[in-house]
């Protein structure tokens, strides 16, 4: 079994692969104070919870947007496997053509999503990752990564409004209004965050179509994708495990054997 870890600002998403198939997906908190040994215990518990603790771990792949966490998780994983533990970064073969000015500045989570998208979906393609930030990653008709954009995420926008204004409250997103006519402040905040993000995705897709010379396939991933997707007026594909699948692709490219 191959273990893939997508380390985000708030959560670590864990995928267990049996060959090409994802056996389980789990999520734990990102905590920079934890040691490798502590995370090793947590990972062992996750494997047991998903009835995968009896399977041999043949290797692991990691992407991270949190400085230092990839090293901590790599240490944790070495308690679980003698196989290769790959951290996506400089020098790792991805097969992805990066046509941008500063490839090293590109988040490794976005590399992973782009890798899987580039050989899975019709090109051109735009991957929209709705997490702490909302990011757009554009792939041209050849599958090359040619550009990107970054905006505040849905929840981050709401948090910023609450923290930097005197009267705007904290609101949840469990009950999104069914139209844009907000009847009170809480509804207005929710509409602005969710419908506003949907409108941004629609507008950016139109602009990417002009820049890429064709209407792109829009692939949504990230924790807020399920919240925003119902309010989009354009066709989209929801791929919640896109980064994990990309990590498995990269691991196989570098180690040339099945993740069983």
TrEMBL record:
GO biological process, one term: coenzyme A biosynthetic process
Entry keyword set: ATP-binding, Coenzyme A biosynthesis, Cytoplasm, Kinase, Metal-binding, Nucleotide-binding, Potassium, Transferase
Binding-site list for K(+): 129
Keyword Kinase: yes
EC main group: transferase
Pathway involvement of the protein, from the record: Cofactor biosynthesis; coenzyme A biosynthesis; CoA from (R)-pantothenate: step 1/5
Compartmental location: Cytoplasm
Reaction it catalyzes: (R)-pantothenate + ATP = (R)-4'-phosphopantothenate + ADP + H(+)
InterPro entries referenced in this protein's UniProt entry, alphabetically: ATPase_NBD, Type_III_PanK
Biological role: Catalyzes the phosphorylation of pantothenate (Pan), the first step in CoA biosynthesis.
Name of the protein in question: Type III pantothenate kinase
Signal peptide: none
Protein's UniProt keywords contain Aminoacyl-tRNA synthetase: no
Enzyme Commission number: 2.7.1.33
Subunit details: Homodimer.
Cofactor(s) it depends on: K(+); NH4(+)
Residues annotated as catalytic: 109 (proton acceptor)
Any GO MF annotation of the entry: pantothenate kinase activity
One protein family per Pfam: Pan_kinase
NCBIfam families (alphabetical): baf
Family: Belongs to the type III pantothenate kinase family.
GO cellular component: cytoplasm
Residue positions binding substrate: 107-110, 185
